Every structure is written in C-alpha cells, then in structure tokens.
Recover the amino acids of this structure.
C-alpha cells in the first residue's frame, strides 16, 4: 500500500483480477436500527459580550423538522459551555427541539478541540443518535472531523441538501468535482450519519407555538491537563469584521468591473443602498478583493434579502453560494450569462452605463423626499 493511500476504495472496482479488498468496520444492519434521533450541535457565539446560539443552529433545526416528517424521531440539541448557559436554552424549544443535552463545565468556556471533542464524542456514544448535524463554521469544521475520526465514522462536509430516502437513510448532497456535479452521499453501514452544513443554506423555521422540551444535564468528565490549547487573546482582523453572511443587502461584483479602481463605483452603490460589498472568486484571484468577502463554493454561502450581481457570469461554484438569496438582481452585458437563470430581475447591459443612472435616480429620490 502506498503512503498516500486514503482507503477511498476506487482501486477495488477497477482491479481486473479482483485481487483487492478492504475490510471495513460495519455495524450489522439490525444494530443500525438501534440508533435513533437527530442531534444538532448548539454552537454558541459571543456577540458584543453576550452568549447566544449561532444562526446556523436554528437553520439546522428547521431542516431537522423537515427530515423528521419521514423519521418521526426526537430532535435534540447538544449545548456545551461554561456553567450558567442554561438561561439561553428556552429559545431552542420554539424552533422544534425536543431535548437539550446540557453539558456545563468551566473547561468548556472557550472552544477547544480537545475538550469539545471528548465531551461530544461521549455524548454520541451514550445517546446513539442516527444523525448528527453541525454548522460548517470555523469551529464546526474543526470539531466534526475529529469526532468522526474518533468514532470511525464518515462525515459529509458542506452539504447543500439533506433528505431522507425510502430506506430512512440520510441523503447528503454536496457539490463534487469542482462543483460540476452534485453528489448524493450515503453512510449505509455506520451510525450516526454525520454532516456539516454551511450557514445560510437552510431557512430558520420558528414553530408557531412555544413548546415544552426536556433539559437533560450531562455530567462532564474533563481534566485541565487533557486540554492542550489555551486562548490567550482574540484579535479580529479588519476584513473579518465585514461579515457578508449577516448582510441584508449584498452588492456583489465580478470580473466585468474591469479594474480594481472601478470597484469604487460599486462601493458608491452599496453606500446608497445601505448594503455591503461582496465579490466573485475571480476578483479575489486578481487581488482586487479579499477572500472574506468572496461568495461561493470556496467562499461564503449567503442568503441576503437582496443580492445584486454586477458583471458576474454565474458559474456553478458562484451560484451554490448565493442562490438562496430572497431577491436576486443581475446586471450583465451577455444575455446568455447563466446568472440570469437564477435572477428574479435581469438587466442586460453595460454596468458602467446602468450603475451611474441608478445612482442618479437614487440621489434624485432622496432629494425629493427631503
Ligand atoms: C473548485 C472551484 C471553486 C470555485 N469557487 C468559487 C467561489 O467560491 N466563488 C466564485 O465566484 N467562483 C468560484 N470558482 C470560479 C468560478 O468557476 C468562476 O471562474 C468565477 O465565478 C468567475 O467569476 P466572474 O463571474 O466574476 O468572472 P467571469 O466568469 O469572467 O464573468 C464576468 C462577467 O462579466 C460580464 N461583463 C463583462 N463586462 C461587463 C460590463 N461592462 N457590464 C456588465 N457585465 C459585464 C461578462 O459578460 C461575464 O458574464 C471556483 C472554481 C473552482 C474550480
């Protein structure tokens, strides 16, 4: 076996002599049925000194409610953090949670791979869920693969779709081969089935009535010396403070803008519309914009109320990051540009003619309303 073999198994199918095989740990089919329910990682974030659940937790709850129409099992949220977080939990019940597994410990105050992996792994071993979902956030992307490795499970990262098939398996859909195909991935022989989902991929669905749920306190065994990392200071970068994932209005710019200098026209428009500027990957590669504002498969997935695409062709890798926006307006000089297929309103024309006219109109309206 070569050192770089990842045990993907593709050599087995192509071996002409049927000489290869891989023995994998498989749970007997009857034992798979013992795994039940969906657990979501209730990731917390500190916003202006206040702890709260990340938006993606509610989005995953929305999806779990939908999956549960086929499964009819329990939906639970695992909340890990320092003592005192129980006050935040009630809100989760409004979004369809049946049980909250509450793991409080001083050593869970800051996120650490060692601490969170140990606690969440033992929770999964104990509760035997059939599905575990994580937000594909910076922390979710660190935590989920570690848990998968400890439990010898598969993990589908950055899913754009989740559904349940006739065999009650989780169908995990995500772009593959550079975004040219959508792959549907199953984990037929192991449980739980685990996936990460990017923020803004699914919608938050608030259930109409308040719901009474169960809070189950989980005793946590953790020792200081088992946590090998310590956060000394948090420094947020200037560009990271522009969070395109939270913006209601995004003015997104592509290669059609022609030069770095011309981007100031887009900023003028953003200022007028009280929006935030984002871009396609082409501009990041040209060094005209920075990666934190890139929309798409290898950038961020966003879902604003309004997305204006200026000089963006609409490559599939871009579309997967923005097609859940409420309203999409595209301006492009090429009538065949694929962006028009997802746009609610399309303007075929030169953005250097259209934006100045639009700015003029906005300013005129503003003056007349004064
Ligand atoms: C693995 C992988 C991951 C990727 N991830 C991403 C990603 O996350 N995000 C992303 O965006 N891309 C991503 N890409 C790249 C993607 O395939 C495209 O190359 C990229 O999106 C193109 O950017 P663009 O639309 O700005 O440029 P182009 O495709 O060059 O399009 C420019 C558009 O501007 C229009 N135009 C030109 N002049 C004007 C004008 N004066 N007025 C109006 N319209 C004009 C043109 O008609 C054209 O449609 C990825 C690619 C790969 C292989």
């Amino acid at each position: 076996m070569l050192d770089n073999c990842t045990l993907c198994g593709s050599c087995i199918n192509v071996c002409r002599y049927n000489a290869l095989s891989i023995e994998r740990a498989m749970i007997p089919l009857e034992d798979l049925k013992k795994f039940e329910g969906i657990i979501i990682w209730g990731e917390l974030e500190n916003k202006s000194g206040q702890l709260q659940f990340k938006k993606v937790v509610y989005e995953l709850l929305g999806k779990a409610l939908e999956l549960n129409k086929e499964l009819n099992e329990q939906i639970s949220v695992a909340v890990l953090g320092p003592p005192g977080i129980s006050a935040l939990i009630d809100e989760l019940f409004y979004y369809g949670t049946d049980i909250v597994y509450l793991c409080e410990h001083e050593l869970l105050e800051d996120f650490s791979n060692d601490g969170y992996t140990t606690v969440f792994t033992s929770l999964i071993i104990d509760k035997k869920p059939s599905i575990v979902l994580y937000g594909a956030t910076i922390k979710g992307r660190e935590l989920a693969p570690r848990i998968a490795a400890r439990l010898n499970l598969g993990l589908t990262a950055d899913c754009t779709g989740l559904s349940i098939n006739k065999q009650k398996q989780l169908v995990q859909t995500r772009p593959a081969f550079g975004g040219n195909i959508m792959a549907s991935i199953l984990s037929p022989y192991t449980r739980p089935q685990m996936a990460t989902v990017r923020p803004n991929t699914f919608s938050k669905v608030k259930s109409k009535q308040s719901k009474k749920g169960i809070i189950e306190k989980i005793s946590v065994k953790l020792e200081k010396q088992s946590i090998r990392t310590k956060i000394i200071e948090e420094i947020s970068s200037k560009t990271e403070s522009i969070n395109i994932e939270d913006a209601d209005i995004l003015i997104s710019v592509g290669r059609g803008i022609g030069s770095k200098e011309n981007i100031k026209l887009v900023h003028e428009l953003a200022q007028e519309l009280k929006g935030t500027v984002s871009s396609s990957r082409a501009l990041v590669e040209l060094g005209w914009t920075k990666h934190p504002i890139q929309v798409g498969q290898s950038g961020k997935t966003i879902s604003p109320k309004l997305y204006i695409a200026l000089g963006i062709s609409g490559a599939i890798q871009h579309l997967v990051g923005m097609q859940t926006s409420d309203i999409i307006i595209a301006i492009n000089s090429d009538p065949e540009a694929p962006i028009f297929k997802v746009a609610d309103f399309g303007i075929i024309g030169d953005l250097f003619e259209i934006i100045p006219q639009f700015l003029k109109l906005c300013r005129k309206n503003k003056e007349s309303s004064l």
Remarks:
- The mean pLDDT is 92.
